[in-house]
Amino acid sequence: MGVIEPQDAFAIDMHFHANVFRRSNAKRRRISLALSKTVMHLDGLCSTEHAYKDPIEAYDFLDAMVRHHGLKTWVIPGLENISKEGVEVIQLFPTRKALVDAVEKAPAFSWSIHDVHALRRNDGILVLPHPFSPSNTGIVTGIGLEKTRSLLQHFDYIEMSNGSFLEVPIEMLPATRFKERIAKTTQFPSGLVPAGVGQCYGSDAHRPEDLNLFSLLKKGRNESMFETLSRPQKLKPIYRSMDDMQAGYKITRSLLTSSIEYMQKQDYKLSSSGFKASGERRSLSKFARDLFVD
């Protein structure tokens, strides 16, 4: 996979996870240093941490990282929210205050994907990530293609390709629905995009070294990156080579990340519903991370 990066454009990752939730200060410092080297070529970075993993903390971390390392990268506040059905939606905002307000008004698992229009705000941008993801986080898998078609018009952008699936050796997979959905997650069918809805690209990276797919953005001289994005448009992809990462290793890491985040969802549901077990209840996700990650 080569590099396509025109010199007269701005590069922005529309889907990135800081992944510092419940991390030690030492680990955060290592992530900050590694990330500063990875994003120094980017003009914009959308903070889209999962709603159940403290997206405000994630944005603050990225904002502080950029300022600490003297980078010119513009960090856009946002989150990857999740519906009662388990379908994920990205919300982007012009300010931290707007992000805080959105988190309070529509917490994770508190709303239905069928009412996604209620998430629309005059000061926000609504993005549909990985629509064909094999898991229920993808809207097509979650509620079916026909119901999805009726909701696409409510989004400002549709993620046409998701970087976390780009390294999967699709040609080696058997011809199944799973393979078909992975293929459509790496390339969403353009014929399904409604008129007036923009097209974008994002890495969906959870680690600095996984940033591999960005959106090419051309903006006016006197407007911010967010103001430009507020006008839905057909953005073009920018690919970054990842020759140093073997596909098998990336799949293993992706599966592990998905497993940990599944447990983090359960932790969130238990804590937010007021559930309390007798004695001290150890976090499922922390237990998994202690075993396999840190």
Write the layout of secondary structure elements.
Elements: E1 10-16, H1 25-38, E2 44-47, H2 55-68, E3 74-76, E4 78-82, E5 88-92, H3 96-105, E6 125-128, H4 139-143, H5 145-151, E7 157-162, H6 177-186, E8 198-202, E9 213-217, H7 225-229, E10 236-239, H8 247-272, H9 284-292
Helix pairs in contact: 1-2, 8-9
Question: Would you kindly provide a written description of the structure presented here, covering whatever features stand out?
Answer:
This protein has one domain: TIM Barrel, CATH 3.20.20. The two termini are 30 Å apart. α1 (25-38) packs across α2 (55-68) and α8 (247-272) runs antiparallel to α9. It has helices at residues 25-38, 55-68, 96-105, 139-143, 145-151, 177-186, 225-229, 247-272, 284-292, and strands spanning 10-16, 44-47, 74-76, 78-82, 88-92, 125-128, 157-162, 198-202, 213-217, 236-239. Mean pLDDT is 85; it is low at 1-7, 242-252 and 274-281. The protein is built from 9 helices and 10 strands. It has a 5-stranded mixed sheet with strand order 3-2-1-9-10. Strands 4-5-6-7-8 form a 5-stranded mixed sheet. 38% of the residues are buried. α2 (55-68) links the parallel β2 and β3. The protein is an alpha/beta fold and 294 residues long.
Features:
294 residues, alpha/beta, five-stranded mixed sheet, 34% helix, disordered N terminus
**Quaternary organisation of the protein chains:** single chain
**Contiguous runs where pLDDT drops below 50 for at least 5 residues:** 1-7, 242-252, 274-281
- Helix residue percentage: 25-40%
Task: State the domain count.
Answer: 1
Q: Which percent range describes the beta-strand content?
A: 15-25%
Elements, N to C (H/E)? EHEHEEEHEHHEHEEHEHH
